[in-house]
Amino acid sequence: ESKYDPRYRPWYINTKRLQSANWVKPYPFHSLGLGITYSQPYWSDLPDGRSSFAGVMAVDYSLDDVTAFLTEAFGESPTDVLIVEAQEPYYVIGSSTGSPVSENRLKSHLAEACPYTVDDVACEPVR
To answer: pTM of the full predicted structure?
Structure first.
């Protein structure tokens, strides 16, 4: 049984607080490396015509998928396309060059790449 409850995730809490659509800064996904989440509140209509907050809809994008999309869409273009964070330090979210924007490293020694063949090794994505 999963103990995952999206109502306690930062993207849900922020969207409920803002009551508007928004992007969350990149963060480590459980199994996809770094990613971003776009979320939007939704409301249900009450019998008296008012609306009531009903929850949050969200979609996750791994940074690798963003790069893959940009590479396919703009890879033949003479211009490189980058998506960067809106705030400092303006990390790259995705690139049409296909260059990776993060990589998994050993948590115990960030200078070493994470071996993908070992399931019990603690890794973390770094930029």
So the answer is: 0.77
